[in-house]
Design a protein that fits this description.
Elements lengths: L12 E11 L2 E10 L3 E6 L8 E6 L2 E11 L2 E6 L5 H13 L15 E2 L1
Antiparallel strand pairs: 1-2, 1-4, 1-7, 2-3, 3-6, 4-5, 5-6
């Protein structure tokens, strides 16, 4: 018996950005680990339960989403309304603008790069 193949159509941008997640009178600090027009990968100490409706706030972004899955401190979110590519690009540009250049041979943590 074969399992159905899950295909991700939206291009994901890998990043490491602090954000807030709000749900059910709770506010948690998280980090966004990747972002696309349709969702994101988040990391936080107390992930909400699958199916919970949340609001993510990060820089200029404020968007409602549903928790799609949880694995330990990481969880996937599906935006209730997809972002346009300009919104994603603006967030990436703001994140990149605030990170100083790294010394040769060192990484620039927080800089977004495409996967």
């Amino acid at each position: 018996m074969t399992k159905p193949i899950s295909v991700r159509i939206a291009k994901r941008i890998k990043l490491f950005e602090p954000a807030l997640v709000r749900y059910q009178h709770t506010v948690e600090r998280i980090h966004l680990l990747d972002l696309s027009c349709t969702g994101a990968l988040a990391h936080g100490a107390n992930p909400p339960a699958v199916g919970t409706i949340i609001r993510i706030e990060c820089k200029t972004l404020s968007i409602a989403a549903r928790i799609a899955w949880v694995r330990g401190p990481k969880y996937g979110v599906a935006f209730l309304t997809p972002l346009c590519s300009d919104d994603v690009n603006n967030l990436i540009a703001i994140a990149a603008a605030v990170v100083p250049a790294a010394a040769p041979g060192r990484s620039r943590i927080g800089i977004a790069y495409q996967r």
